[in-house]
Amino acid sequence: MESDVITQAVSERYARAVTNGEEMCCPTGYNHEDLRTFIPEPVLKVSYGCGTPVGLTTVQPGETVLDIGSGGGIDCFEASRRVGPTGRVIGIDMTDEMLALARTHAPTVAANLGYPETNVDFRKGQAEAMPVDDEDVDLIVSNCVINLSPDKPKVFQEMFRILRPGGRFSISDIVSDQAIPNYMIYDKEKWGDCLSGALPLHEYWGGLRDAGFLGIHQVNLIPWRVIDGIHFLSITLTGYKLTNPQATSLAFATLKGPFTQVTDERGHTFKRGIPESIDTQTATLLQSPLYDGLFVLTETPEKFTGSDSRWSEVLPEDTTCVWDGHFAMLTGPFLEARDDDDHTFLCGVPLEICSKTHRVLQHATYQPYFGVINRASQPGSHEAIICEPTGGCC
Ligand SMILES: C[S@@+](CC[C@H](N)C(=O)[O-])C[C@H]1O[C@@H](n2cnc3c(N)ncnc32)[C@H](O)[C@@H]1O
Questions:
Q1: CATH code for 3-240?
Q2: Which of 83, 88, 86 is nearest to 60 (CA)?
Q3: Residues 277-308: tens digit of each pLDDT
């Protein structure tokens, strides 16, 4: 379908929704009681996001935040509160009716926050060509919008362009566990419902990486709907536009675990306990809080084994295994990761797992790196399988 046909259908859908005050999309987890203290009810009524703007909790006073597809303005107004009167917020939306609602209520929000004037600038524009200067923004947020774009690689490139080095994004969006079939893609109405444009998670993640982002990882993942066997998930992802590498004497990284092997976003492979030489950019990346607890960074190579307190592993229980429909998806920050039972997880690609592996991935050290769905349409007899003595049944 032509891009402009999709864009027009999406814009008309949201113009209609905001005009009718329609309820749409997904539960978001906003604390409306709290937001009601400074955001007018008509804005809260058209909250059409699919996640919580968790990235906003990292906002520092004085920062510049940009919201892609700002709708009625809910995330912009929350950002406005957090950046304080010295910070700035930019909301971009292509739908006049949405912009009108947001602009109408901006002065009330400013007054409720005790600001002399609003610090939110709602601009009309497309996510694929944002009316924003290069490197003008500290944090990009977006809530259930990028799936609606017919040209997601362009949106990701634009995000990279407008973010300052060291800046970050935190976006909630709808993704799928597999490619969307043509009968859904060619259904204009389903675009507006956040279904037709959903990318499989591995493509979404890959698009962000191709645009130049690093440290891309899941903050939250909630299964949303299953339609014709396709799982639609609400995911919140964060990632970084790294600063130029800092000079450092740290020249080696040793993986502590719990994975036995990982491949990072720049294609370097690390095996648990084996030191690998790293360049300054990887050293900068691995020092970010996201990698806390995963690597030991040293000036000289440091090898360690299972008897070392830094070694981390989660072994499967020595018990029977049941195939009950679970599939695990690695959700970053690695391209590829291997566990102690020799499963190789590729980022965003569902891999069928048995009950034993499901339990392993629920361990606190693994949980942040995975999303799990269940593709079994009905409960079955799910016979327990006796594993081989080596434990390699699955
Ligand atoms: C599902 S609503 C979400 C609104 C808001 N983020 C929220 O959480 O309530 C999608 C919004 O994105 C806007 N939008 C969709 N595609 C867009 C695009 N390609 N460029 C700019 N805005 C877009 C729509 O006009 C609509 O206001």
A1: 3.40.50.150
A2: 83
A3: 999 999 988 988 889 889 999 999 999 999 99
